[in-house]
Amino acid sequence: MDIQRIAAFSQGSEGGNPAGVVLLPEAVSADEMARVAADVGYSETAFAVAQGNDGRSWRVRYFSPESEVPFCGHATIALGAALGKHNGAGTYMLELNDATITVDAEEGPDGMMATLSSPPTRSRAMTDAEEQDVMTLFALTPEDLDPQLAPAFIHGGANHVVLPLKDRARLSAMSYELNEGRAVMRKHDLVTVMLVYIEGNQTFVVRNAFASGGVLEDPATGAAAAAFAGYLRDSQWPHNGSFTIRQGEDMGSPSLIKVTLDDTAGASVRVSGGARDIK
Q1: What is the DSSP letter of 211?
Q2: pTM score, two decimals?
Q3: Helix H segments across 41-159?
Q4: Which pLDDT tens digit goes with each residue over 22-45?
Q5: Largest CA distance in the chain
Q6: What is the dihedral of CA 25, 49, 80, 241, to 10 degrees?
Q7: Is there a contact between 160 and 192 (Cβ–Cβ < 8 Å)?
Q8: How far is it, in rounded angstroms, from Cα 67 to Cα 76?
Q9: DSSP state, residue 37
Q10: Structure confidence at residue 157 as a pLDDT band (50, 70, 90)
Q11: For residue 22, which of 43, 6, 9 has the smallest C-alpha distance?
Q12: Cα separation, 50 vs 201, whole angstroms
């Protein structure tokens, strides 16, 4: 297979979240995709099979080193960049396991840029069991939480929970045991746990634990950003139609995620970022 290695949500020649991208002329088995994803070793690898002859429609599946996930934002941005280089700028239709979305590719000042339109979003309050298990995992107390925004279960193509923290230093100190995190996330059917520091109404600093995929932390998580956007909308947060997420700063891989949304409950949101080839 021709495996492209691309960092999504990068800032110029720095940062971003590495993803594998494989463009296939025909489908291969799930076992083969899982094997390749484990060999690549990135948090996600996207496998795209061309549908038709125009290069504009693709069947896409996402694999972490340990499991298949229904949707991955940063791998979709990386895929958009790869498709833009392969077939030119424009809109690409992506058929996922549980949804059909689009990704737009365009040439930016520092290379390819991509914007995905997410699956529908939804959110709800965390259950007592979810909140207790996640708070215990990260050794958090109620005093650590920011009262501006309640903890929540959020979805925008994949399941996540979000915990807003009132102290930036507490976010920097995020720590947990990988095997315990894997057990908690699989118990509650979560792809990541998103810890958020509210820097302003339209600026958030984020860390995403991804033990469900065998990775301690993601430097940029587009699927969680989409789910978080839906939650902000459901909470009547004053987002003014867009916001920015900074992620990866505490792990030395600064990443930038831009999100635009309207006030239609449950509607798709648009998640944008740059991409760079990994040499």
Answers
A1: G
A2: 0.93
A3: 73-87, 128-137
A4: 999 999 999 999 999 999 999 999
A5: 57
A6: 160
A7: yes
A8: 17
A9: H
A10: very high
A11: 6
A12: 40
